[in-house]
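Lab notebook: predicted structure, single chain.

Context: the supervisor wants predicted structures on file for every construct in the current expression panel, including those that have not yet been purified. This is the next one on the list. No modifications to the sequence; it matches the entry in the shared construct table.
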Amino acid sequence: MALSNAGKADLYLVIVTLLAAVSWIFSREAVLLMPPLLFMSLRFLLAGALLALIGHRQLRLLTADACVRALKVGLVFGAGMSCWVMGLFFGTHVGEGAFLTSLGVVLVPVISRLVFKEHQPRSIWLALPIATTGLALLSLKSGFRPEAGQLFYVLAASIFALYYTLNTHAANHREISSADGGTTQQEKIPALPLTAIVLTTVGLLTTLLSLLFEPWLPTFTHFSAEMAGWILASVVLGSAARFLLQTHAQSLSNHSHGVVIMVVEPVWVALLAAGWFGETMSPVQLTGCGLIFASLLINRANLVRQWLKALF
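Prediction complete. Output recorded below exactly as produced.
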C-alpha cells in the first residue's frame, strides 16, 4: 500500500535524523582542526552553492516575497547553528549535547502557539516539565555550574524551535490575515530553492561572525586533506542532502509538530559518539537523557498512539 504524504514525511525525517547524527561526528572532528565558525561558513556556503546550482531554474521563479521569507528563515537558522557549533567546540560530551539540542523539538509547539496561534495538544504541557527536569539533571549535575558548551546548546535549541516552525510554514501554503479582515494564501516555497537560500544565508552569516571573531590565516596556511574530507562530508551529507530532505519532508505535512519525529536523533548521536569517541555517561546523565527522550515521546503522543493502533 502506498504511503500517504504524512507517512512519507515521517519516513524522510527518520532518514534525516540518521544524516544529522553522522553530521555531529563530522562536525566534531572538523572543529578540532579549525575555528568553528569558519568551518560552518565553508560548510554552508558550499552546500548552499551546490543546491543553488542544482535548482537555479526554480530560484529564478521565486517572487521577492518568497525570497525575503526564505532569508528570514536562514537568518534564524544561522543564529541557531552559530550557537550550536560553539556548543560543539566548547562542549566536552557530544552525546549530552545532542539531547540538550533536542529540547528545541519540545519547544516547537510552544513557538507555534505563541507566534502562529496554532492549537496544541495538552501533551505538550506535560512534556515541558519532564524535559526541564532532564535538562537540570544533565546541566546541573555538579551544582549550578553549567558548562559554556551546555549553555550554547540550550540557546541553540531555543532558536531551532523558531526555525523549525518558520521553515514548516515557508514550505507550505498557509492562510494569513489581510488588512481588510479577510484571508489570503501565503505562497509555498519549493523545497530546493528554499533550502538553497537558507543554507547560503547561514553561510554568509557565519562568514561575517568568523571574520569578526576568528583568525583565518593559520587554518589556510596549514590546510590538510583531513580538513577537506570532514568539510566535504559535512557539505554533501550533513548539509545539502540532510536539509533538502528535511525541508521536502516538512513540505508534505502541514503540521509543524511533525518535526518531532526527530526524537531519535540524540539517540543515534549518543550511540555514534560512544563508538567513535568512546564517550560514556554517568547514571545522572543517563537519567537526564531518558527524561528528555520521554518528553519527546509524550510530545509526539498522538502519532505514537496511531502507530500502535496500526501495529496491533
